Amino acid sequence: MKFTFLHSAVLLASLGSAVAQAQDFPTKTITMVVPFAAGGPTDTVARLVAQSMGIKLKQTIIVENVGGAGGTIGAARVAKAAPDGYTLLLHHIGQATAPALYRKLSYNANDSFEPIGLVTDVPMTLVARKDFPAKDFKELLAYVKANKSKVTYANAGLGSASHLCGMLFMTAIDTDLTTVPYKGTGPAMNDLLGGQVDFMCDQTTNTTSQIKSGKIKVYGVTTKARLASMPDVPTLNEAGLPGFEINVWHGVYAPRGTPKAIVDTLAGALQVALKDPMVKQRFADLGTEPVAESRARPEALRTYLKTEIERWAPIISKAGVYAE
Ligand code: MLT
Predict the structure, then answer these.
(1) Which of 42, 121, 163, 191 has most ligand 1 atoms within 8 Å of its beta carbon, as the pocket-test mutant?
(2) Is 251 left (phi over 0), alpha (psi -120 to 50) or beta?
(3) CATH fold of 123-239
(4) CATH architecture for residues 28-122+248-319
(5) pLDDT in tens, 98-143
(6) What span, in angstroms and rounded, lies between the C-alpha atoms of 116 and 298?
(7) Atom number in ligand 1 closest to CA 183
């Protein structure tokens, strides 16, 4: 094909508009997809971050809940979205476990996204309905082992953090329970509060206020050390599950191909949001804190996601859990 003056003029014009688009970004509302139902821990983190990022970007960031299939439906939505910076994903450790759990994912967790940055590491708590017949972890273990599948365990679907914790718990105690899947642990919490389901493992961002108000029982946390927000709650490690630690890390992603200038603008707004006193206080109230600025960067998330995918694959394979 003869490269004419017209071709070069069109190419320059298109390059020029791409640069202008990146320089002016954002010029309209941004959508942040949360791959779980409203009212859950992922939704809570996203709404705080979206509100603060929007102030920095001088644009509204709306949160859209796209639940189902342990977060993979929402992630797929963003993987296929236009790479223009106006559709983002806020997801957690499920982004790293889905490749081992789903044999037919419609996207590649590493290659279908442009990482923006890590957001926060959230601990998990083992919680039960308030009249569950166990006063501590030892009694819970005895009850669960005695009643097995009569005991119901709520999660947010294969690939959710609540599923991952439940899978590791059942493997650790070598006992299968009846799992009840929801589109998020927001709806699951409603059933736990109502006594329709016996217990679940969920993030402090969803359980702290219910625990402190006595509406649910807590038996342990999945951190190495006890939480400052709940110093009387033992770690599961000390309560009877040695080495049982899960950190539900969260990251923000854009579709693959989003221009670097736009990725950098979004990453800059995320870093500002994570220093926002409102975000820091609300995270602290919910038993967590923003990651250090060095981790709220694209390359930090890219590296961490890759190592987490590699870390969880053999663990999940050993548990023998996957979806066709
Ligand atoms: C999970 O269980 O993985 C999610 O945190 C559920 C949710 O955010 O609703």
Answers:
(1) 42
(2) beta
(3) D-Maltodextrin-Binding Protein; domain 2 (3.40.190)
(4) 3-Layer(aba) Sandwich (3.40)
(5) 999 999 999 999 999 999 999 999 999 999 999 999 999 999 999 9
(6) 4
(7) 9
